[in-house]
Amino acid sequence: MSLQKICTIDQLKNLLKETVSQKRYLHSLGVAQTTEMLLEHYKCTNYEKTWNGFSAGEFCGVIHDLARELPAADLISYCRKNAIDITQSEIESPVLIHGKVSAHMAKVLCPGYPESWRRAVDVHTTGDSAMDDLALALFAADFVEPTRVFLTDEKRNEYISKPSLDACVYAILCDMIAHWKEKGYHEASEGSLALRKDLEIRLGL
Ligand SMILES: [Fe+2]
Ligand SMILES: [Fe+2]
What pTM, to 2 d.p., does this model score? Predict the structure, then answer.
């Protein structure tokens, strides 16, 4: 992948298409569209909406999995080369590193893009504390976008009919943590537990 400067969303989509599988390309476009939809649906205002002609939800959706198909060794070496910190959970499950690597690649492609957008992409894998509406919408969209065939329409509608974005993300997060445990993939990460705690406080649970 060549990390040359990108000026438009179409250039970014083309780069994504050249970089990942068709399935992931379509997933990413679905995430972009669904992030925009959730931000609109929940009338979110707590985020930076636009930058340099890019729209927040679309940009973050398109970029969020740019590094998702890199082998674990490449993700780790990218972090070492670029002085990106890796947590204990990420060392144990290197696939989780793709969020921060994708976020860093976007910095090279689009220098100066908003820090809040970078963070949304960074934490989309497991979540973290203090996420703004953009980060929450991206997190939810990654799970519910239309090409996710493991979800029935009924379940998808159940998530997106929650009364608030916080409640929507909380329902998804609890199901994700239960799923990871059931399948023995990995324990809930520090980030997902921090997000759950934040949401429980905000939702008064
Ligand atoms: Fe991802
Ligand atoms: Fe994704």
Answer: 0.96
